[in-house]
Design goal:
The chain has about 475 residues and is an alpha+beta fold. The protein contains 15 helices and 9 strands.
């Protein structure tokens, strides 16, 4: 059975044989792109090559790109622990053509790799195309996909845009049917979100340019951008539908089980899964220079760390756990990503410090949360004031409280939470005004308003992010 490390190599070597340059992953913090919170797809480091602003001495590239989808528009944080196919950190395998080959080659490349190199049975595969893309339909038919397995989709799932303006085009996706013992329906059906038909690969055809006035024209330079989740193809090749059953994720789940002395595959499995996932995203973010803080990228990191720590608490951990799992991660991924090995000591210290600090308030905060819930009617939401107290006094990010309540089928009164936050800011303003400071301290409050810890919305308006 191939390991994830083997599969990564097979992918890169296949495309190297087809004339692609193997390019290293770019960091998780995109260079020169403040509009994007984290690198969330393989194309991010190549944006300027697709627009023609930059050229390099290769026109074909292949990568295994570190991606984080937490915070910002593509946010899979709430899927972790709930679906079999989502991580906050994952590796996206991709092949790219910058004005070189197009659909006629991109589809056969993908098909050959999947059905020959990886030997995946054809009768388990489905493809989707953008509803008007007859060219893609024809090419899929020619490589041998039966017509009733080429599904036309009219939504944005099959039309990719780099941003509101700029390169865009239809895409085609490959799905694998894991069988009717798993809930879910084929792409385009209402049950698509289940884990039965899992999307493994997205192949984008950049053929148009979108302008501000809404018009679109054909691009002179046609390009290809693809993305396949390593953990998803890995699960499939290792005989499972579940990313967390892969060799790599299992070894992290087992490390978590060792550190907490809790059965990895019993009823506490979900906590180990979340911990394994969050261990990867937090460690890779730290190795790329992000440190926990109260705003921006650092606050997303802190939120992920604290969520993991609550799950460790639910496993009964009395002492900090996360830092003890880092060696297992480095052992698995350090060879492919040497920056992880180099940052090992920093990652361990940062996790330990954050967990030691948060431990001091976590237990008391959870106790408060339980007491509040005891006093509430069936199904009623947690009051905004209580959620704000958890945030303000106990350091619970709002999404951590929401995560804790979701298990119990409850929600937070978020309007009430926002109102409590506003009230606190207003009080702080009044205190300043009363102190006789110069009037221009309003600047400080503007900063507070835009950078307030839970108010961080800046990157939600991000435009220039690729799906793939
Ligand atoms: P899904 O619909 O399953 O959420 P997506 O359409 O959001 O996936 P894309 O943006 O098309 O995914 O990304 C390209 C590929 O990256 C996907 O086909 C999938 O294999 C992989 N991928 C996307 N998001 C995740 C994730 N959160 N964890 C693991 N793999 C992912
Ligand atoms: Mg998604
Ligand atoms: Mg999708
Ligand atoms: Mg997709």
């Amino acid at each position: 059975m191939p390991s994830l490390n083997d599969i990564r190599s097979t992918f890169l070597n296949y495309f190297a044989k087809q004339g692609h340059e193997i390019v290293p992953s770019s960091p998780l913090v995109p260079r020169n792109d403040p509009t994007l919170m984290f690198t969330n797809s393989g194309m991010v480091q190549f944006k300027n090559l697709f627009t023609g602003v930059e050229t390099r001495d290769y026109q074909r590239a292949t990568t295994s790109q570190k991606c984080v989808r937490a915070g910002g528009k593509h946010n899979d944080l709430d899927n972790v622990g709930y679906t079999a196919r989502h991580h906050t950190f994952f590796e996206m395998l991709g092949n790219f053509s910058f004005g070189d080959y197009f659909k006629d080659d991109a589809i056969p490349f993908a098909w050959e790799l999947i059905t020959k190199e990886f030997d995946i049975p054809k009768d388990k595969l489905y493809t989707t195309i953008y509803h008007t893309d007859d060219e893609a339909f024809e090419i899929w038919r020619k490589v041998g996909v039966p017509e009733d397995r080429i599904i036309r989709i009219a939504t944005s799932d099959n039309f990719w845009q780099m941003g509101p303006t700029g390169p865009c085009g239809p895409c085609t996706e490959i799905f694998y049917d894991h069988g009717d013992h798993i809930w879910g329906g084929p792409p385009g059906s209402p049950e698509e979100d289940g884990d039965r038909f899992i999307e493994i690969w997205n192949v984008v055809f950049m053929q148009n340019e979108q302008f501000e006035d809404g018009s679109m024209k054909a691009l002179d330079m046609q390009s290809i951008d693809t993305g396949m989740g390593l953990e998803r193809i890995g699960a499939l090749l290792q005989g499972s539908h579940d990313n967390y059953d892969t060799d790599l994720m299992k070894s992290l789940i087992e490390a978590s089980a060792d550190a907490t002395s809790v059965d990895p595959y019993g009823d506490k499995n979900v906590h180990h899964r979340v911990i394994a996932d969050h261990l990867r995203s937090t460690s890779f973010l730290i190795s790329d220079g992000v440190m926990p803080s109260n705003d921006g990228r650092g606050y997303v990191l802190r939120r992920i760390m604290r969520r993991a720590m609550r799950h460790a608490h639910l496993l009964g951990a009395k002492d900090p756990v996360m830092h003890r799992l880092v060696p297992a991660l480095v052992q698995q991924m350090g060879a492919a990503y040497p920056e992880l090995t180099q940052a090992q000591a920093l990652i361990e210290e940062t996790l330990k410090l954050e967990e030691t600090r948060f431990k001091q308030t976590l237990d008391r905060g959870l106790k408060l949360l339980d007491d509040e819930l005891d006093g509430l009617e069936e199904g009623a939401p947690l009051s905004g004031d209580a959620a704000f107290k958890l945030y303000d006094t106990y350091g619970f990010p709002l999404d951590l409280t929401q995560d804790a309540l979701r298990e119990k089928g409850r929600e937070v009164d978020t309007d009430g939470f926002d109102a409590a936050m506003e009230e606190q800011k207003a009080k702080a303003r009044a205190a300043w005004a009363g102190s006789g400071e110069a009037a221009d301290n309003t600047v400080w409050f503007d900063v507070l308003d835009t950078a307030g810890a839970t108010d961080f919305l800046g990157y939600d308006t991000e435009k220039a992010e690729g799906q793939v």
